[in-house]
């Protein structure tokens, strides 16, 4: 089965997940300048035409920075815009269907507990996410998993594990000490008054923790 040959996800550290926003192109460009090296467009409310419009724009910016671009949950849109990958949740489109629609795509899968972690080992995915470590408004109604689950996932999974939920510069060192190497960030970047600086602070914290 073909894979996107250009991107080694194991070497990627800082994964931005963002929805549609008025300043999306500028925002994404600034976060990439700051050190984001994976990006996902996750938009649950806009219509397909709107998502496609923004996805085409963001894909070009991401590729200018040699950064892989993922679409959340919509392999049809990912195929239409030429995205590098699709991220799906436990209740979204099945991984096998994504593979049939876009055989060469990178595929990520959300996991939230040990049962889902074990299930992911049987799936044809390129990475998993684990969390959220702490409850977050981006996942309403879902309790935090705690660091222990993210640590377990990072230890067990043979694929890169991107940890979600409350990641910020002050939490990086503890997470790295627990074996975590890959980080998904939403609010710390999407709510930042200076996205480039916020991304740079995250990236610096990651690089310093990994080097120590």
The number of E-state strands comes to 8
Average pLDDT taken over every residue: 94
- Which radius of gyration do the C-alpha atoms yield? 16 Å
- Report the structural category: alpha/beta
Spatially, the strands of the biggest sheet line up as 1-2-3-4-5-6-7-8
Specify the biggest β-sheet: 8 strands, parallel, barrel
Percent of residues in helices comes to: 40-55%
Count of domain modules: 1
Unreliable segments of 5+ consecutive residues: 1-5
Shape: globular
Order of helices and strands: EHEHEHEHEHEHEHEHH
Short account of what is shown:
It is built from nine helices and eight strands.
Structure keywords:
alpha/beta; TIM Barrel; 8-stranded parallel β-barrel; 42% helix
Describe this structure in words.
The structure is a single chain. With 212 residues, this protein is of the alpha/beta class. The chain has a single domain, classed as Alpha-Beta Barrel (TIM Barrel), CATH 3.20.20. The chain is 42% helix and 16% strand. The chain has helices spanning 24-34, 48-64, 75-81, 95-101, 114-120, 147-156, 169-177, 187-190, 195-211, and strands at 14-18, 38-41, 69-72, 85-88, 106-111, 127-130, 161-163, 182-185. It has an 8-stranded parallel β-barrel with strand order 1-2-3-4-5-6-7-8, surrounded by 6 helices. Helix 7 (169-177) links the parallel strand 7 and strand 8 (182-185). It is globular. It starts with 13 loop residues before the first strand and ends with a helix. Mean pLDDT is 94; it is low at 1-5.
